């Protein structure tokens, strides 16, 4: 059974940083690309970033240059380093397998950017 557990969210001021982590289990982690998405209140989940099984990365225009995705195939984790945070980055952040939709995801971790 695929299990994804996100952590690392919190309350931060604009311009601050956070590092999110997603612990994966129940599947062959190193064989799959992974992705992060976020969901603001009343909106659909928005794709944020992906990392292939070989480490190739991609980002949405809204976070490019500010967020960095990485993975550790020994620890079965995928992280999202977020810098220069903006109020509009406030959302629940989820990780998922890159090949699927968002139906397989963890419980999410709340990121709130506020003065």
Ends apart, CA distance between termini = 40 Å
The global form is globular
Radius of gyration: 13 Å
Strand percentage lies at over 45%
- Record field, number of beta strands: 10
Low-confidence stretches: none
Mean pLDDT across the residues is: 97
Q: How do the SSEs run, as a string of H and E? A: EEEEEEEEEE
**Percent range of helical residues:** under 10%
The DSSP helix count reads 0
Strand order in space, largest sheet: 2-10-9-4-5-6
The biggest beta sheet reads: 6 strands, mixed
User: What structural class do helix, strand and pairing data support?
Assistant: mainly beta
Please characterize this protein's 3D structure.
The protein is mainly beta. The protein is 0% helix and 48% strand. It is built from no helices and 10 strands. It has strands at residues 3-7, 10-12, 18-25, 34-39, 46-51, 57-59, 67-72, 77-82, 91-97, 109-113. The strands form 2 sheets. Strands 2-10-9-4-5-6 form a 6-stranded mixed β-sheet, with no helix packed on it. Strands 1-3-8-7 form a 4-stranded antiparallel β-sheet, with no helix packed on it. A hairpin with a 4-residue loop joins strand 7 and strand 8. The termini are far apart. The mean pLDDT is 97.
């Amino acid at each position: 059974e695929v299990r994804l557990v996100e952590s690392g969210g919190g309350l931060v001021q604009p311009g601050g940083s956070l590092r999110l982590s997603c612990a994966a289990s129940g599947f062959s982690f190193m064989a799959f690309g992974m992705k992060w998405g976020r969901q603001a209140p009343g909106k659909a989940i928005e794709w944020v970033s992906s990392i292939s099984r070989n480490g190739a990365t991609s980002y949405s225009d809204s976070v490019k240059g500010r967020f960095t995705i990485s993975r550790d195939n020994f620890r079965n984790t995928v992280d999202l380093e977020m810098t220069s945070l903006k109020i509009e980055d406030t959302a629940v952040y989820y990780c998922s397998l890159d090949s699927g939709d968002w139906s397989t995801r963890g419980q999410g971790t709340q990121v709130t950017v506020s003065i």
